[in-house]
Design goal:
With 332 residues, the protein is of the alpha/beta class. Helices cover 33% and strands 24% of the residues. The chain has helices at 16-26, 40-49, 56-76, 94-97, 113-126, 169-183, 199-205, 212-228, 287-296, and strands at residues 8-9, 30-31, 81-85, 105-110, 135-136, 155-159, 188-194, 237-244, 249-256, 260-264, 267-271, 276-283, 300-306, 312-318, 329-330. Strand 10 (260-264) and strand 11 (267-271) form a beta hairpin. Helix 2 runs antiparallel to helix 8. It starts with 7 loop residues before the first strand and ends with a strand. Bound molecules: N,N-dimethyl-L-histidine (AVI).
């Protein structure tokens, strides 16, 4: 491996989980943001979700990257610095990195340090010539990321997996603005976005028969017990996920199976039977809806690749207005 930097921690707040959970339990309706799913176990469960037959986004996006990775590399420039947000296990990254022969560096950014270490090691072995520059930070705090060096190289933000769908539309615009700042004047972005489609397909994707999505959702409660000393019966809650068509999003909730309470930090939180903690939104966008958000954040949508069924889009955004625009390309 050419040069593997140690994982750098950026601006972490050890108490954040505690503060945010208490705050989320105090509010009505109750909610805890999805970034807290991703402890080590949660990240493993997410990888399992991605292997289920129902969860189509991973294999669909993988197919697009496999088919069009070379074209994407040509658009972003093969000698760029590739900055991946929420890199996780970086399973799809080789499909792009294999075409970036002259890349200055690969900069994975992820909240989960063990995951970051494992994936950086694996990619370092696959691409020994490439500099690995991992950063352990929550990508929703992108504004706190400073990346020095790499002058004269184009910076390209790679954000696959449709993780952008876990932000509200207003947060999307803010995150895309921060990404534009990090990318700099002639920067670019490749971003995977899940599309609107049949409600049956969407509902099945978040209610897989193997129960991995349920375990992923319920793991949040296990974390609260283990890490925050929260006291309650873990069997007292169940997983619920459904497509909210009015808002164009999947919603995930933890539903109280009966009247009960959670004790934490000296406070008691009463739950009615059927009351929920809202744990995740996963927004789905048509190509045009997403492009509107990109425009609002200062990006120029220049191209998009999609699969045969149009279930998933990978958008190419540029900060230079003058760059050529191409219509979209659909997979086989
Ligand atoms: C990471 N993110 C894009 C996933 C999604 O589809 O919203 C997280 C997930 N939640 C349940 N299943 C997958």
């Amino acid at each position: 491996m050419r040069s593997e930097s140690p994982v750098l921690q950026v601006d972490q707040d050890d108490n954040e989980f505690h503060t945010v959970v208490l705050d989320g339990l105090r509010r009505q309706p109750r909610s805890i943001p999805p970034k807290f799913f991703y402890d080590s176990r949660g990240s493993e469960l997410f990888d399992l979700i991605c292997t289920t037959p129902e969860y189509y986004p991973t294999r669909t996006e993988t197919g697009i990257l496999d088919e069009f990775g070379a074209e994407m590399a040509e658009r972003i420039g093969t000698s760029c610095v590739l900055i991946e947000l929420g890199s996780g296990s970086a399973a799809k990254t080789p499909l792009l990195l294999r075409h970036l022969s002259g890349a200055a560096a690969y900069v994975p950014i992820d909240i989960c340090e063990p995951h970051l270490q494992r994936s950086t090691r694996r990619l370092g072995m696959l691409f020994p010539q490439m500099r690995m520059h991992p950063l352990c930070v929550d990508y929703t705090r992108l504004h706190s990321v400073k990346l020095d060096g790499y002058e004269g190289r184009r910076r390209v933000i790679f954000f696959p997996g449709s993780s952008i769908g876990n932000c509200t539309p207003a947060e999307v615009v803010q995150l895309l603005r921060h990404a534009a700042k990090l990318a700099g004047a002639d920067g670019a972005m490749l971003i995977g976005v899940d599309s609107k489609k049949s409600h049956d397909v969407l509902n099945a994707a978040y209610n897989d028969a193997a129960g991995h999505t349920a375990a992923f959702n319920l793991n949040l409660l296990a974390r609260m017990r283990r890490e925050l000393g929260a006291r309650f019966d873990p069997d007292g809650f169940a997983h619920r996920a459904y497509y909210n068509s009015a808002l164009g999003r999947i919603e995930m909730h933890l539903v109280s199976r009966r009247k009960q309470f959670i004790q934490m930090g000296g406070e008691t939180f009463h739950f009615e039977d059927g009351e929920t903690i809202h744990t995740e939104n996963s927004y789905k966008y048509t190509a045009q809806e997403f492009q509107q958000l990109a425009w609002a954040a200062g990006w120029h949508p220049k191209m998009l690749w999609t699969d045969r069924k149009g279930w998933f889009n990978v958008h190419y955004l540029s900060l230079s207005a003058g760059e050529a625009t191409h219509s979209h390309r659909q997979g086989r």
